[in-house]
Each structure stands twice: as C-alpha cells, then as structure tokens.
Write a structure and sequence with these properties.
Layout lengths: L8 H12 L3 H14 L4 E7 L5 E6 L6 H7 L13 H4 L9 H7 L2 E7 L6 E7 L2 E2 L3 E3 L4 E7 L6 H6 L3 H18 L4 E6 L2 E5 L6 H9 L1 H4 L3 E7 L2 E7 L5 E2 L5 E5 L2 E2 L3 H11 L8 E2 L1 E6 L5 E2 L10 E2 L2 H18 L8 H6 L6 E3 H4 L22 H4 L2 E6 L3 E6 L2 E6 H16 L6 E11 L2 H16 L3 E6 L2 E8 L11 H11 L14 H11 L9 H11 L15 E4 L1 H7 L5
Parallel strand pairs: 1-8, 13-16
Antiparallel strand pairs: 1-2, 2-7, 3-4, 3-7, 4-5, 4-6, 8-9, 10-11, 11-16, 12-15, 13-14, 17-18, 19-20, 20-21, 21-22, 22-26, 23-25, 24-25
Length: 575
C-alpha cells in the first residue's frame, strides 16, 4: 500500500490558510481588498478582542448572487482573471481566489451578500471549511463578512496571536495604507462599537492624512510630481524636520497597490538623509504609476511584495522627485553671491535683531530660573548668544572669547541633571494650564490602550475624547519641561512603545542612570530646530546651573571655545 496519498481538501485548505492568513490583520487585508475590488464606496471594519472573536467587514459594493457566494469560498475561484496573462492587465488587488477559502477554513465565517439588481440577499455559513446551506435573507445591497473565532481549529496559530492591543494596532496600521491609497472610499474602523477613526471618502489624500495624522502633519505636506517616459510619480512628503522614530508615516503604492519595496523606500529616505537626524524616518505617501506589464504582483501570497521591471531606474526618479520637492519648498534661500550680498537666510540663521519680535515657542521651567536655582558656572551665565548656526549650534560671546554650543548636547545635559533631581517627583501630577489634545497614530493608539492604567498611575491625567484623540490635562511634575509642540512627552512615550521598546526602556519608568540619559536624549531639543534668541539665552542660563555643563550624558562635548588670542594668532595679529 502506498504511503503517499492525496490530502483531504479540507486539510489542504487549512494548510494553505497559513500562507494567506497569518494573523487578524491578514484577514482584514484580504476582506478590505475584496471590498475595494467590488467598487465599494463605504467600508466598515469592526474588530472585537483584537480580531480573535470577531472581524466584520461590511461594504456597499457590487455584491454576489447565491451561486457566486458559494463559489467564493472555494479555492482558486475568482472573477478577476481567467488566464495568466490577465495578471498584467488586471488592476484589481486580489486575483488568487484563495482568501475566502483560507479564512473560512480556520474560522466560523458568515457571508451575507446582495447584488444591486436583486431585491434580497443570501446568507452562507462556513464552519471550519464545511460549507452550509444557502439561505435567502433581507439585507442592504453589498456584502457583509463576519469572521468569528479565528484559528479556533488551529491551536498553534491561535497561540501565536499577540495581545488584543497589539493585533488592533497592526490592523490600524494596515488600514491606514488603504485609507490613503483609496481616498475616494469612506473607511470606518471600530473597536467593538467604538469608532476609532473614519475617512470621508472625498478623494482628497490630504484630508485622509489630516484625519489619520493630525493637523501638524497635514499642514506641512509638500507635493511631489514627476511625469515622463510612461512613469508617473505623485503624492506628498513632509519636510525633514517632521520625522518620527518608526516608519508608520510611510506608504508607497504601485498602480494603486500598497507595496513593501525596500529599494524604492531606501531611495526616498536617501533623498531626505542630509537633513534627517540619525534613526529618524521621514513621512511620505507616494503613488507610482507604470505600465501593468512591468509589474508582477504574484511574488508573494500576501501580494504586498511585487516584482518590478526597471526597479533601479524608478528608484532614481523617486530620489530626484523627492529631492526636487524638498528643494523647491526649502525655507533657505539658494546660495549665490547676489543673494548673500542682499538677503539674509530666513531659517538657518537667527540674529538678535530678528528675534526681538518673535515669541518663544517653548520656555524653560520657572523652577530653573536664575533666581530659583543657584548658578554654579559663572562663565556660562556670562555668555551672550549672537546667533544660531545651521540650526544646530549657538554662537555665543563670553569674557574668555567665542563659544560654539551644541544645542542638543547642551539641552540633553540640562535634562539629564534635571531628571536626576526630579526622580522623586515623577509620580506627582502637575495640572496643565492649557490642556492639549494629541491624536494617536494607529500603532500608538494600541499602546495607549495597553498601557493606559500605567500612565494614570504614573501621574498623567489623560482622557479619551473621541476616535484616537487624547486630552492631556496633567503630566508628572518631573516631566513638565518636555516639548509640547507635537504632543510632548505623550508622543515620545507612545512612539517608543510602538517602536517595540519595552515600557521600562522609557523615561517615565526609569530606575537607572542609563535611563535618565535616554530620557534626556529623547526630550532634548534636536538639531535643525531653529531657536529664538530668548530660547538660546535660556539654554545658556540653564547650562550655568547644572553640575557639569562640559558634556552630554553620552560623553560628547557641549561647548567649543575659541580665545581672542587664538583668533588673533590665526589672523596673524599681535593683539
């Protein structure tokens, strides 16, 4: 008797499901792509328990009649292609005919569908791959698919599912790609009955970015456009100064398909690199349109990885398109003799005359004022800021000569010592005079929900005010000086957690010196941050109050000093 046999179709479906359905986000991806291919204009996604208990996707697309509904849950049944060559002509997101068969093989799946030309719909139940009876039902036009108890019959895969918050975060990050890529479709995401966010579907990518990333990002969008030789690149980027520690603010589309392509992504990031701080990533949402024959979307079962002809050529065009956009919208004047003689740079240089009318965007804490904190270093107290150079260094004059101060290293030292002093006050809540709101990015919202109780225990007073927006009313007293222009310490903490750091790695949970240093580095003002004269003077004043202003906690110097004698010697003067 032969030892080799043909697998039961149900077992084959369950094995094949592992290629397509890795986690709840995989199910959401396949169902939403089906809705988009069905030309839906409204898609509603509901998640319960991170997708373990329920994933429900409802759309107002074309719908299916009873015969198609039964066929849709069988493997390799699709309406999108007939022969292999159709792949190069098809613009649909799905084409393999595997998704519903795979999903229904590892869950209790309810399918409801009604085509536009029919007065009623049908309900079909598929229980672990076993297809039930087709039942007529009253319903609106479109399709509803409810996936319950995912992986109930695959214990090993069920154990691999992460926490509900982590899975919800993954789903949110995934859906944001589709919301931006299909700005003409209104997409709603619910956690249970609570609406986390929704897009209005007016076709404006900027509006979707506003809804998902907030006004700070939406207000800084720079357009990108290139069109030549059959290649079209368009979309939006943000200036390099708007960056984050993860790649959550990046989406790349080829022929409207969201894709992961490290060659193209690296080309885009490289265009930002001269102006981007280390380990920070730019925001971009870019669409590439090429001839369909140059794209093979069948490189991976998830279809998010594609093979692309002339990939290096397209990467080069992307690089230059992004560079051109950054240069066209740079705040700095082009360098030329004429400009140098007649005009002053507007951003990378701030003179004291210019700053007199400017209001400081942030202030130092009152408890660090000269009257409240003893001056330990008179030489720093005597420094007079003259200007900021390259938005990274403060040029100052002192009794012993000329000083060049690294603004980030200096601020880092100030925060480091402040955090050490304030360590015992960290748990004391300090109400804010003006509470502010912060809209979480998808991954951040999941971390907020996961660590919400811990935040409250640490002295934060934060309430949820709708969608993924938080109202911050109080923060721990020891963190009162964190920057507040972009969500402040809340953003810093959530970004770190969403980036995979353990909560003990973050400053609000510190217990050791190294964590003080990490906290200081993250909270300190960064390079390329334009400072007003008042801010520069405040930083110099604060350096005079710290125990050791000579270096940052990581050992880098904060100050370079040039004496008058040395300057005279270099100019060949005798004094």
């Amino acid at each position: 008797m032969s030892r080799i046999h043909i697998l039961d179709p149900l077992v084959a479906d369950q094995i094949a499901a592992g290629e397509v359905v890795e986690r709840p986000a995989s199910v959401v991806k396949e169902l939403v792509e089906n809705s988009l291919d069905a030309m839906a204009k409204h898609i509603d996604v509901q998640i319960d328990d991170g997708g373990r208990q329920l994933i429900a996707v409802q759309d107002d697309g074309l719908g299916m009649d009873g015969e198609d509904l039964v066929l849709s849950v069988r493997r390799h049944a699709t309406s999108k292609i007939k022969v292999l060559d159709d792949l190069t002509r098809s613009m649909t997101l799905g084409f393999r005919g595997e998704a519903l068969a795979a999903i229904s093989a590892v869950s209790h799946t309810h399918l409801f569908s009604r085509p536009h030309d029919q007065s009623y719909g049908f309900h079909l139940v598929v229980d672990g791959g076993n297809i039930g009876e087709l039942v007529p039902t009253a319903m609106a036009e479109g399709t509803v698919i409810r996936v319950e108890e995912l992986f109930f019959n695959v214990p090993a895969r069920l154990k691999a599912i992460k926490s509900a918050h982590a899975e919800l975060g993954a789903i949110q990050q995934l859906l944001q790609h589709y919301a931006i890529g299909y700005a003409d479709v209104a997409i709603t995401l619910r956690d249970g009955e609570k609406i986390l966010w929704h897009t209005i579907g007016n076709g404006q990518v900027q509006d979707v970015i506003l809804q998902l990333f907030g006004s700070e990002i939406a207000d800084s969008l720079l357009p990108v456009h290139y069109e030549q030789e059959g290649l079209v690149i368009h979309g939006f980027i943000c200036p390099a100064m708007k960056n984050r520690g993860t790649r959550q603010g990046q989406s790349l589309y080829i022929n409207r398909r969201w894709v992961n392509n490290w060659v193209l992504r690296n080309a885009i990031e490289e265009a930002f690199r001269p102006h981007l701080p280390e380990r920070r990533y730019p925001y971009f949402w870019l669409f590439i349109t090429v001839d369909g024959s140059e794209v093979d979307p069948n490189a991976h079962p998830t279809k998010s990885e594609v093979r692309l002809d002339h990939e290096r050529f397209i990467a080069g065009k992307l690089y230059h398109a992004v560079q051109d956009s950054l240069a066209a919208h740079s705040p700095s004047e082009p360098l030329s003799l004429a400009a140098a003689e007649t005009e002053k740079p507007s951003q990378l240089y701030v003179s004291w005359q210019d700053s007199e009318s400017l209001e400081p965007s942030w202030r130092w804490p009152s408890e660090m004022d000269a009257d409240a904190v003893p001056v330990l270093h008179d030489e720093y107290k005597a420094l007079i800021p003259l200007a900021q150079w390259q938005a990274k260094y403060i040029i100052a004059q002192g009794p012993l000569g000329l000083y060049l101060i690294d603004q980030h290293a200096a601020h880092e030292r100030v925060y480091y010592e402040q955090f050490r002093r304030k360590g015992q006050e960290i748990l004391v809540a300090q109400p804010l005079l003006i509470p502010y709101t912060y809209t979480c990015l998808p991954g951040e919202w999941a971390k907020w929900r996961e660590y919400r109780d811990m935040f409250l225990e640490m002295g934060f007073d934060i309430t949820e005010v709708g969608g993924t927006t938080l109202m911050v009313r109080a923060i721990p007293q020891g963190l009162m000086n964190s920057p507040s222009d972009s969500g402040g310490i809340i953003r810093t903490v959530l970004e770190s957690l969403a980036d995979g750091l353990h909560h003990h790695d973050h400053p609000i949970f510190w217990t050791q010196e190294t964590q003080y240093a990490l906290a200081a580095c993250k909270a300190a003002v960064k390079a390329y941050r334009v400072l007003t004269m008042e801010e520069m003077q405040a930083l110099l004043d604060m350096m005079a109050t710290v125990d050791d202003p000579r270096g940052c906690p990581h050992g880098r110097p904060t100050t370079l000093h040039l004496t008058l004698e040395e300057v005279d010697r270099r100019f060949g003067r005798k004094g």
